[in-house]
Design goal:
The complex is a heterodimer of chains A (159) and B (261). Chain A is of the alpha+beta class and 159 residues long. Helices cover 30% and strands 21% of the residues of chain A. In chain B, strand 10 and strand 11 form a beta hairpin. The longest helix of chain B has 54 residues. The chains are: A alpha+beta (159), B alpha+beta (261). The interface between A and B is large, with 35 and 42 residues.
Chain lengths: 159, 261
């Protein structure tokens, strides 16, 4: 009886300590995953930020992801990225090759482009179609997701 | 009074005979105070050899388990620290490159290099880092180069570097226009890149150490509003490497020269 009680107490202690350590390890892993996910998200967001809302006058708007174009090197405006998705293990680089940026885990990047995303404070004072909200979501190995959002506005830029 | 078969001297009554006292004294002298009975001796003794052995074995097992746990915790901490350090180092590389490249006015000549090391030359890019005097013209002091240095240079080998003309330069052409006839064209010439890197007043600062390979790309055209600069880096991580990919879009790009359209 005494031995049984001792065993139960010992097992409970071991389970408690193991649970704590496991949670600690998982937290560490998630932190590393988040850093990788943010880097992946920022890369794609910066790439989108380089694109205009409208293609320059005199040029033809090329199809985007929604129209079946999966090669994002051919995207020429922000809307082309709507619905875009890829895996961190095979991110295509500008020369067409794929780079494994997954750091051993499974990451999925997806893009959402929301048109007419005028901030509430500007409703009535601005044109809704001049605002586009882009959200890049990166799903991490343990199922968590992190999102980066950026609001783009329509401006005329001359180089 | 007799308790558990043992007789003490205090228990002896005056009416006991001298013989009884003598027997008790002799008994104590012969067998000591515990010689009253085997059962009592066992009841008052410590653990048996078997119990001690078992106890020591269990203690040993618990200690071994604890040691294993502590070792695992220690390794976990080390790995955690290493992971944090790696993530921090990678973030710093991105931040530094982004800060430098987003403010660039024009990205000129570049060598792609190779992430696999197959190119035979190191990745590098020459760019107009800023129009410091706001005159819209390109002066030598406004140029910079980001370049990867492999193991060829024993000093600061495997580093990503930023080359610039030092502020204390006494060269006469520091603030001279690169080419009065065409402000930007020279920026795209390989010969000018070599000439710039050969200047005696050019020095570098290390953007990141532990870079084992680098590959650069540029995306620009006459219809491009914001040129993109892409970089793929292999960073050393313990005994392996980790690939980092980043993009920087120029926020204040100047007009692309006719020769580059």
């Amino acid at each position: 009886m005494e031995a049984t009680i001792a065993s139960v107490v010992l097992a409970a202690c071991v389970a408690a300590v193991s649970g704590t350590l496991s949670a600690s390890y998982q937290q560490t892993a998630v932190r590393g995953n988040t850093a990788t996910a943010i880097a992946l998200g920022e890369q794609l967001m910066e790439e989108i930020a380089a694109k205009p809302l409208d293609v320059p006058s005199g040029t033809t708007d090329k199809p985007g992801w929604s129209a079946g174009q999966v090669d994002r090197r051919l995207y020429d405006n922000v809307s082309d990225y709507h619905g875009y998705s890829d895996y961190g293990s095979s991110v295509s680089t500008p020369n067409g090759s794929a780079a494994d940026l997954s750091d051993g885990g499974s990451y999925v990047r997806t893009v959402s482009v929301q048109n007419n995303a005028i901030p509430p404070a500007l409703v009535g004072n601005g044109t809704a179609s001049d605002f586009v909200l882009v959200t890049v979501t990166v799903t991490m190995p343990h199922g968590q997701a992190t999102s980066l959002s950026k609001l783009f506005t329509r401006v005329t830029m001359v180089r | 009074m007799t308790t558990h078969g043992r007789t003490s001297l205090a228990d002896l009554q005056p009416r006991d005979s001298r013989a009884a006292v003598s027997r008790a004294i002799a008994r104590r002298r012969a067998f000591g105070p515990r010689a009253g009975g085997a059962a009592a001796a066992r009841a008052r003794a410590g653990f048996t050899l078997m119990e001690l052995t078992m106890g020591m074995m269990i203690t040993g097992l618990v200690m071994a388990a604890t040691a294993g746990l502590m070792t695992a915790v220690g390794q976990g901490w080390q790995q955690s620290e290493s992971a944090d350090s790696n993530a921090s180092a990678a973030s710093q590389v991105h931040l530094r490159l982004q800060r430098i490249l987003k403010g660039a006015r024009q990205i000129g000549y570049y060598r792609a290099g190779s992430i696999s090391g197959a190119a035979g030359f190191n990745a590098a890019v020459l760019f107009w880092k800023d129009d410091v005097n706001q005159d819209g013209k390109l002066q030598n002091a406004e140029l910079a180069v980001i370049g990867f240095q492999d193991g060829g240079d024993p000093q600061d080998a495997q580093t990503l570097r930023l080359y610039q003309i030092v502020k204390s330069s006494v060269q006469p052409d520091v603030n001279a226009e690169v080419d009065p006839t065409d402000y930007y064209k020279k920026l795209y010439e390989g010969a000018f890149f070599t000439q710039f890197m050969g200047r005696p007043d050019v020095a570098y600062t290390v953007i990141s150490a532990g870079v084992t390979a680098a590959e650069f790309y540029k995306s620009d055209a006459s219809t491009t509003v914001r040129p993109e600069f892409h970089y793929v880096l292999k960073l050393r991580r313990g005994s392996g490497t980790e690939t980092e990919y980043g993009t920087a879009a120029e926020r204040v790009a100047t007009t692309l020269p006719v020769s580059q359209r």
